[in-house]
Amino acid sequence: MVRQDRTDARLGVVDDDASIRETLAGFLEAEGYDVRCAADADGLDRLMRPDPLDLVLLDIRLPGVDGLTLTRALRARSELGIILITGRNDKVDRILGLEYGADDYIAKPVDERELLPRVRNLLRRVGHSRLASPTETLRFGRHTLDLGRRLVTDETGGAVPLTTAEFDLLAVFVRHPGQVMSRERLIAASSHRRFDPLDRTIDTLVRRLRRKLEVDPERPSLITTVHGAGYLFSA
């Protein structure tokens, strides 16, 4: 059962650097979270056996099974929140991580003042996706978006699997049909991240949404690019 009090959320910190594990765990525990640590994929597997995690902070460069491979495996079987811990120059890996289903990332050295709101925001989004009841349903193209249940279905009623980040971005688009949305506005509305002109998170998520929703992802008609301005959603 998902906890109603999100400060009781169960977090995992997975990093092969003991000092980073201890620092992050100590900080998050001081904020009231139940934090468990692991140094590698096997350790994470042991953490998740007795009680599923709500969110995991996952180093992208783990020994053995790396963070990208772990992200893909976790997303295939779980809706937990995934925040990748990356190096400052790991831009390609960040994009791959988002492609594989990560919800967010944060660069080393980790700024605790930046980490905490990201953890809180993602826990709120993940918790809402599990606890919400049906409230508002919106139709677009061949699909239906249920905001309360955080569910997207196609014309046959089949569920379209979306990550938390994908759903949040799609919800922004569906609520603003016919409007050109800049990357800065989309980031602010969907994730509350600080805007970075070099951040390609939105582009990556749009590409993933196109693959899942468009009839022809190479010639999108639902989410189109407005060069120099952003994206346009056509319901």
TrEMBL record:
Keyword flag Transcription: yes
PTM-bearing positions, type 4-aspartylphosphate: D59
Domain of life: Bacteria
Subcellular location: Cytoplasm
Gene Ontology biological process: regulation of DNA-templated transcription
Matches recorded under SMART domains: REC, Trans_reg_C
CDD domains documented for this protein: trans_reg_C (cd00383)
Gene Ontology molecular function terms on file: phosphorelay response regulator activity; transcription cis-regulatory region binding
Response regulatory domain residues: 10-123
DNA-binding positions: 135-235
Domain OmpR/PhoB-type as annotated: residue spans: 135-235
One of the record's GO cellular component terms: cytosol
The protein's name: Regulatory protein VirG
Organism: Prosthecomicrobium pneumaticum
